[in-house]
Specification:
Number of strands: 38
Strand order of the largest sheet: 6-7-8-9-19-15-14-11-12
CATH class of the largest domain: Mainly Beta
Radius of gyration: 27 Å
CATH superfamily of the largest domain: alpha-galactosidase from lactobacil brevis
Length: 728
């Protein structure tokens, strides 16, 4: 059994293939954390030590002894008011304004399968793949019940955690802070890996030492954001890609979040992740429930690569859903960088026709296809096809494109509204805005109030009307500004708006995928501003960044790979000079970088040279050959592109029979030394044949001494080598 309970000691042990997570309901009914690490047997309550810590207070019932303090002990759900002065995970306010929560153990249940959460995305698994532990905590005086939920997926080395709060009293309560998962370590010297960034340069991995201050990441923007990603990794200071202990927390949520890591006065370390508590005050009337979004936990004692691979497998197979989670995605060309707003139906048709000749499978009509939309100052919210601009109906255009054997996709931005729109004229109160104040504009647009059911219903109806006009097989779902004004014109409590917004968005997406189960949706928020596991539950791929420059993408995709699989990364080949930074890179290099993602093109194929057109044909054919390996293989980061001359990464099939090695040389110097790249994950004692060079190599030598990378004149050259294991 994955979940075991020692009734005498009231110790719970959660076992996966290589890890153990353990906690204990102690003699005072507090739920204490004991251990999360390498798979272990027995009980680890010996790790708890008790002594008088002076200014660390003690619960009243422990008097006259002074050796028991929650300010020192590791806990599963630390709260405010119990004498723990470290960062709390749960903060509840009473109707009278008192903030004090004292939760005590009140029982448990163990069931087969994986729990789900009402209205929220969550990891899913069958009864054969998972078990659920539910631990009940109660504050009798406050009238609060907390159900701590633990989902255990043994084969993936994944444990998930969420909680459901229920008001069992007679007065209204307010949730002021809700961190879904907490890891409390009694000792250790740790580093913290986070993934900060900005628009067009997201998820740049940063590593810092955990010292005596509290390190906080998060987003107050109403989305998971370009600036921080809801992923944190704690590690020993010596941990690297192949060796050392590391723990991951990944939030299955797309709105504002907060992650905190602090080293306390006695050398303990607390790491926790959950909802942003800014402008958050969620009401719980008597009988009401509140579900905190889920956090995915994983541990590895074999370095960051093994940790990432566990997260990748979980997201590919137990977060992403629908027919596209396992299928190779179509190679597409997007009209944005090819035409921007300046197109008509014939432009899109010719784009499809020229792309078809090169083996590309889908054309996507980006922004500018609806009424009053010749620029980005107007039209959002109406979603009526501009047949005058297209010169034909949408159905006619799609039929013409389908007739030449091409799929058709379209861009939408359903959560936004322009002041210059028919919808805003009719319903100005449908925008999030502060009464009596001029609204803040982002990209000259406002945000629709998705916390309101009538708004969600309207957008669903408009999208269905659009999708029913023809054979639309793909949607690019964009979101091009953050939430600044947190005010709903119909909410009884403004502290609930941001959370209810996400429930409305998830409800809209769920209804769409139920009605159109074969539709492929690619998430986007100005590129990678909402790249998170919550969106991947509805959209199995996300546009990784609006920055399509291959060299910048090396760092963006490197950071993204720590928590997310290659199959989720929207990545395209674009024109040069690059439209975001003006850099010029070889056409082949752009393809090598984009191929470690969903793969597609942001350009007009008709404007390519004959040599480039032939390269596209070869690239598309190669991608189809490698796609199953790229989508399902084990991803290894071989170098850090921010620190190394070469950016190198590798994908190895589960059975280790096929290997794809990718290398991009980021700089050249006179008479420079030869770089050697050490491979990982090959089967020891075997020989591997490389297709392009026609050379056979020892697997152990490739992993120990490395593969020499040839130096060529010019900049930004890339190499892509395919190895096949020889049978003995």
């Amino acid at each position: 059994m994955a979940i075991q309970y020692n009734e005498k000691k009231r110790i719970f042990s959660l076992h996966t293939a290589h890890t153990t997570y353990q906690m204990m309901a102690d003699s005072h009914d507090y739920l204490l954390h004991l251990y999360y690490g390498k798979h272990a047997v027995g009980e680890m309550d010996y790790l708890l030590q008790y002594m008088d810590r002076g200014f660390s207070p003690c619960p009243h019932e422990t008097a006259p002894e002074r050796i028991y303090s929650l300010d020192v002990l590791p806990q599963e759900l630390p709260t405010v008011g119990t004498g723990d002065y470290r960062v709390p995970a749960l903060m509840i306010e009473s109707e009278g304004g008192i903030i004090w929560t004292d939760l005590r153990y009140a029982g448990y249940s163990i069931t087969s399968g994986k729990y789900s959460l009402p209205g929220l995305p969550a990891v899913y698994a069958s009864a054969k793949e998972a078990q659920t532990l539910e631990i009940f905590l109660r504050d009798q005086a406050l009238g609060l019940q907390v159900s701590l939920l633990y989902g255990v997926l043994p084969e993936l080395d994944i444990i998930t955690r969420a909680m459901i709060l229920k008001n069992t009293g007679s007065e209204k309560l307010y949730v002021r802070k809700a961190q879904s998962a907490v890891l409390d370590f009694v000792s250790g010297e740790f580093d913290l890996l986070t993934f900060p960034g900005r628009h067009t340069f997201e998820r740049s991995m940063t590593r810092s030492h955990v010292s005596g201050n509290c390190q906080t990441i998060g987003s107050r923007r109403g989305m998971s954001s370009h600036q921080f990603n809801p992923l944190m990794i704690l590690s020993d200071r010596t941990t690297n890609e192949t060796e050392g202990r590391c723990w991951a927390m990944e939030f299955v949520y797309s709105g504002g979040f907060k992650g905190e890591v602090m080293k306390d006065q006695f050398g303990g370390c607390r790491m926790q992740l959950g909802l942003s508590d800014e402008l958050f005050r969620y009401p719980l009337a008597p009988g009401d429930r509140f579900a905190s979004p889920e956090v995915i936990l994983s541990y590895s004692h074999k370095g960051f690569s093994a940790l990432s691979q566990s997260l990748h497998r979980c997201i590919r197979s137990h977060v992403c859903r629908g027919p596209w989670k396992d299928k190779v995605r179509p190679v597409l060309v997007n009209s944005w960088e090819a035409a921007y707003f300046h197109f008509n139906g014939e432009t899109i048709y010719q784009l499809a026709k020229s792309a078809k000749e090169l083996g590309i499978e889908m054309v996507v009509m980006d922004d500018g296809w609806f009424t009053n939309r010749s620029d980005d100052y107007s039209g959002l919210g109406d979603w009526t096809v501009d047949e005058e601009k297209l010169g034909e109906s949408l159905g006619s255009l799609i039929s013409r494109i389908n007739a030449i054997g091409m799929k058709f996709g379209i861009w939408v931005e359903p959560e936004m509204i322009s002041e210059i729109s028919e919808l805003y004229k009719a319903h100005p109160d449908w925008a999030l805005s502060i009464p009596g104040r001029a609204p803040v504009l982002g990209r000259s647009q406002l945000v629709l109030d998705m916390s309101r059911k009538e708004v969600v219903d309207y957008i669903f109806e408009r999208l269905c009307s659009l999708l029913d006009q023809g054979n639309i097989e793909y949607i690019k779902w964009d979101y091009n500004r953050c939430i600044a004004e947190v005010y709903s014109h119909c909410a009884d409590e403004q502290g609930r708006v941001l959370y209810d917004y996400m429930l409305g968005l998830y409800d809209l997406l769920e209804r769409l995928i139920v009605r159109y189960p074969d539709l492929l949706i690619e998430g986007c928020a100005g590129g990678g501003g909402r790249f998170d596991a919550g969106m991947l539950y509805y959209t199995p791929q996300i546009w990784c960044s609006d920055n399509t420059d291959a060299i910048d993408r090396l760092q963006i995709q490197y950071g993204t790979s720590f928590g997310y699989p290659a199959a989720a990364m929207g990545a395209h080949v674009s024109v040069c000079p690059n439209h975001q930074n003006g850099r010029i890179t070889p056409f082949h290099t752009r393809a090598v970088v984009a191929m470690s993602g969903t793969f597609g093109y942001e350009l007009d194929p008709a404007k390519l040279t004959e040599e480039e057109k032939n390269q596209v044909k070869d690239q598309v054919a190669l991608f189809h050959k490698l796609a199953p390996l790229i989508q399902n293989g084990r991803y290894y980061r071989l170098t850090n592109p921010a620190e190394n001359l070469c950016a190198a990464w590798e994908i190895v099939s589960d059975d280790r029979s096929r290997v794809l090695l990718n290398v991009v040389i980021q700089d050249v110097h006179g008479n420079m030394p030869i770089p050697y790249i050490r491979l990982q994950g090959l089967e020891s004692g075997r020989m591997y044949h490389e297709e392009t060079l026609g050379i056979t190599y020892s697997s152990d030598a490739l992993m120990d001494a490395g593969m020499p990378v040839p130096i060529q004149d010019g900049v930004y050259h890339a190499f892509q080598l395919i190895f096949t294991r020889l049978e003995s």
